[in-house]
Amino acid sequence: MARIWQTLRSYVWWTHERASFHYDVMVTIILLFIFLAPRWIGFNDRPTERTLHQTGLIVLPDAEGLLFQVDASAVNGTTQAEIRASLVRIIEPVAGEIELLRYAAVLDAKGRVKSYQAWVRRPYR
């Protein structure tokens, strides 16, 4: 019985030489924990889901802050509030926390909205 406790204590204090049987047992136990424990314990460390920026996003410097040009197909909504919220949702993953100062629709030759220009600045902390 004393021999078992001595062996367990040597595992806790990691006193075995490399490439010995007990060293290999300890490494195997650690690897089993790393690869199998999430299934037993249920770690919930999944990456947060982020909406990626749209491909039609252009950033330009402006005197007021930054000027973003966002493709109209990426913007959802018909009211001003919905369009503002959609622009902020698209721009924030790229620029971080922003304040939308104003926006303007860019029309094509037929009068359809082609894109939106959004003037933003980062709030001071």
Overall tally of domains: 2
pLDDT under 50 segments (min length 5)? none
The radius of gyration over CA amounts to 28 Å
What integer is the average pLDDT?
A: 83
- Please count the helical segments: 3
Strand element count: 4
Helix content: 25-40%
Oligomer: single chain
What is the distance, rounded to the nearest whole angstrom, between the alpha carbons of the first and last residues?
64 Å
The strands making up the biggest β-sheet line up spatially as 1-2-4-3
Taking the sheet with the most strands, its summary is: 4 strands, antiparallel
Q: What are the secondary-structure elements, in order, as H or E?
A: HHEEHEE
Which descriptor suits the 3D outline? Answer: rod-shaped
Which structural class do the helices and strands define? Answer: alpha+beta
Measured by DSSP, the beta-strand proportion falls in 15-25%
Brief write-up:
This protein has 125 residues and is α+β, with helices and mostly antiparallel strands. The protein contains 3 helices and 4 strands. The protein has 2 domains: 2-41, no CATH class; 57-121, no CATH class.
